[in-house]
Design brief:
The complex is a heterodimer of chains A (109) and B (114). Chain A has 109 residues and is mainly β. Chain A is 0% helix and 57% strand. In chain A, strand 6 and strand 7 form a beta hairpin. Chain A is globular. The N and C termini of chain A lie far apart (40 Å). Chain B is mainly β. Chain B has no helices and eleven strands. In chain B, strand 4 and strand 5 (44-51) form a beta hairpin. Chain B starts with a strand and ends with a strand. Classes of the chains: A mainly beta (109), B mainly beta (114). The interface between A and B is medium-sized, with 19 and 19 residues.
Chain lengths: 109, 114
């Protein structure tokens, strides 16, 4: 079966760095997405990786290792507004997105 | 600005009633999707469409139907609502022709079936 695993909840301090991991087992791979979802709102696109390596976009970076079925989202200089759920999703061989359950990130002052 | 909207935003209905949730996008995207989101689960795909008159079943399609008569709209119908269909429903769209093909989401509809 297809499976996306990510931690349920993480806590970090304002101004610090946090890494949210995602491991996956899917039938085929056509890219990995990270989305941010604030409570009661829609998911919004953060990043996309299809090749191994690090993609940097401002305070957010995303890393992919296809051989290990592994990705992480790195958030630097954390701000209170970064408190949200972070969703990992893999596009499988049918070009469908398979979603993890999300990681709730709590930022403390 | 292009956008994707859903209506209603909140709906309470009774078991056995037919319910239709609307989704409208002005991105001119070919691809449209319906998901449900429940605590402890990732987004689960209900139905999707790659163009006008095209519809396909997703992972959790039982009890739901869609139709695509134009590019902008993909209404989701619950034929006979059940309590297990209490959830938050998200509609999404994507271009389908770009390199990334990220999905853009509507604001969601919170449905309660009593």
């Amino acid at each position: 079966g297809q499976n996306i695993d990510q931690p349920t909840e993480m806590t970090a301090t304002e101004g610090a760095i946090v890494q949210i991991n995602c491991t996956y087992q899917t039938s085929g791979f056509n890219g990995l997405f990270w989305y941010q979802q604030h409570a009661g709102e829609a998911p919004t696109f953060l990043s996309y990786n299809v090749l191994d390596g690090l993609e940097e976009k401002g305070r957010f970076s995303s890393f992919l290792s296809r051989s290990k079925g592994y990705s992480y989202l790195l958030l630097k200089e954390l701000q209170m507004k970064d408190s949200a759920s972070y969703l990992c999703a893999v596009m499988d061989s049918n070009y469908q997105l398979i979603w993890g359950a999300g990681t709730k990130l709590i930022i403390k002052p | 600005d292009a956008e994707i909207t859903q209506s209603p935003r909140h709906k309470i209905t009774e078991t056995g009633r037919q319910v239709t949730l609307a989704c409208h996008q002005t991105w001119n995207h070919n691809n449209m999707f319906w998901y449900r989101q429940d605590l402890g689960h990732g987004l689960r795909l209900i139905h999707y469409s790659y163009g006008v008159h095209d519809t396909n079943k997703g992972e959790v399609s039982d009890g739901y139907s869609v139709s695509r008569s134009n590019t902008e709209d993909l209404p989701l119908t619950l034929e006979s609502a059940a309590s297990s269909q209490t959830s938050v429903y998200f509609c999404a769209s994507s271009d389908g022709s770009g390199e990334v093909n990220e999905q853009f989401f509507g604001p969601g509809t919170r449905l309660t079936v009593l």
